[in-house]
Known about the structure:
Elements: H1 17-20, H2 30-42, H3 50-66, H4 70-102
Amino acid sequence: MAPRDTDQPDPGRRSRLFDDELIGLDPAEPEVQAFAAHLDRMRRESSFTVEASLTGVGDFADAANRAEGGRRWAAVLVVLLLLTGVVYVASTILTAVLTIMAG
């Protein structure tokens, strides 16, 4: 049996937010379930580990895939800027290492 993705709303599991903050909303409605899952993700304890960072990247990728129009292009721009920075830093380090090795 495959593990279940915890970020996706589970129709069989009711979020504790329905008892606290989403009073009066229908827990069976898909949009309400998605909003409750979003609130759960926003309240997740932040930890400064590699796993938490990768989870954050995964959340960003999921949000970018759901985005449309200007928001999607803004996400693409952020990713391109990050990749440009990584390539620049890697090339600078490689150039410095090769310069030192060449003497």
